[in-house]
Design a protein that fits this description.
Layout (H helix, E strand, L loop, with lengths): L3 E21 L2 E15 L4 E5 L13 H16 L3 E2 L3 H6 L7 H18 L4 H5 L5 E3 L2 E3 L5 H13 L5 E4 L6 H10 L5 E4 L9 H5 L9 E2 L8 H9 L4 E3 L6 H10 L4 E4 L1 H4 L2 H13 L4 E3 L6 H10 L23 E2 L8 E3 L9 E2 L1 H7 E7 L1
Length: 371
């Protein structure tokens, strides 16, 4: 495999509006600013990544502009004009920076894309993925009423989604899940709490055991694995960890403590593709199924999610819904599409989708270039 040497990095900061507001226990998102990272090697090959950050530090401590700062000040200088034999090296090159995983992943994924393109291969082939199709689930934000939620579930089931994820929070939980289960007693259904509960809510959360959920995702604190182990011993519903698992080591400890039975892998949350692969392999060896969560990505991040999901232990449908579910116009060609809950893994080199520079420039609010 040919190495790459990054000669130029461009940070395209864009502003994108969601088609409809998306509500979780954190709040409601209507738009977001995203940094699209472009790396260009010595032969002119471009690789693409994105910061999957939010505008505010609600999911974790990072925001788009903290990520941009880390990229400009520390991460871009570390890889510029350096020969990289394989993208796996990049994670260790960034080890001098603590956390800031989404900033690291934005440029690390771009290097993976460029490396795959340089070597004429699809990214999934470079990382060892074998699937040609992936199943897709749909994440539904908190709705005004249980009736509204049931209508949304019906809509997305008719579109063919293979799993339904319902966002919950205190006051918008049991009755909402009950309404869905009453109409759809056997669909693959899960709840996502986004850290909205504490151990004081154990008896309340036990009520979810009546609804045969695939899992409840991250019910307790965003950085916790101890209380989750206590909760898992007291409920039948499998716990899935999201925010708490931000590295191989946190995944290892969560598995050893019995904090969860499922793990959601997000490339940005764990610092890039290399760490996502290591967590995948760890979970596979411990019979812990994984799935790929979403962060309301543009097509660039969505493309990377498709590629990572080709690995064999991604056995639960992820949140990689088609572009048109979120954006009036995505920044890639072709846009991500789905047929009855199935996305065909693109056969093209790299991430398999091309960034449309005209669409990118229309949404761009700032550009910085490093060479």
């Amino acid at each position: 495999m040919q190495p790459i040497c990054v000669k130029k990095v461009l940070l395209h900061i864009i502003d994108v509006s969601l088609k409809t507001p998306f509500t979780t226990s954190f709040g409601t998102m209507k738009s977001k600013e995203v940094c699209i990272v472009e790396v260009i090697d010595e032969s002119g090959v471009s690789g693409w990544g994105e910061t999957v950050t939010s505008n505010e530090p609600d999911y974790n401590e990072e925001t788009t502009y903290t990520a941009v700062h880390m990229l400009k000040k520390f991460l871009v200088p570390k890889i510029l004009n350096k020969e990289i034999s394989h993208p796996k090296e990049v994670f260790d090159m960034f080890s001098f920076v603590k956390r800031n995983h989404m900033a690291k992943a934005a440029i690390e994924t771009a290097i993976w894309d460029a490396f795959a393109k340089k070597n004429g291969k699809p990214l999934h082939e470079v990382i060892g993925g074998t699937k040609t199709k992936i199943e897709v689930g749909k994440s539904i934000g908190i709705q005004p009423t249980p009736e509204h939620l049931v209508e949304k579930v019906e809509q997305f089931l008719n579109e063919g989604f293979k799993k339904i994820k319902v966002k919950i929070a205190p006051g918008s939980d049991i009755q909402y899940i009950h309404a869905v289960r009453e109409k759809y007693p056997s669909i693959p259904l899960m709840a996502d709490a986004n850290s909205a509960y504490t151990l004081n809510d154990v008896e309340h959360l036990k009520k979810l055991d009546d609804y045969n959920l695939i899992m409840i995702e991250q019910p307790l604190a965003h950085d916790d694995i101890i209380d989750h182990a206590v909760l898992q011993r007291n409920i039948k519903t499998p716990i899935c960890l999201d925010e708490s698992v931000y590295s191989y080591e946190t995944a290892r400890k969560a598995i050893e403590f019995g904090s969860c039975r499922i793990i959601n892998i997000k490339i940005g949350r764990v610092g890039g593709i290399r760490e996502a692969m290591r967590i995948h392999d760890l979970c596979q060896s411990n019979n812990i199924p994984v799935w790929c969560g979403g962060m309301l990505e543009t097509g660039v991040g969505r493309a990377h999610n498709i590629q990572i999901t080709t690995l064999p232990n991604f056995t639960i449908p992820g949140d990689t819904a088609p572009s048109q579910h979120y954006w009036e116009e995505d920044i890639i060609n072709p846009e991500v599409t789905m047929n009855q809950g199935i996305i065909e893994v693109p056969k093209g080199i790299g991430i398999g989708y091309e960034v449309d520079r005209n669409k990118l420039s229309k949404k761009r609010i700032h550009l910085e270039t490093f060479e």
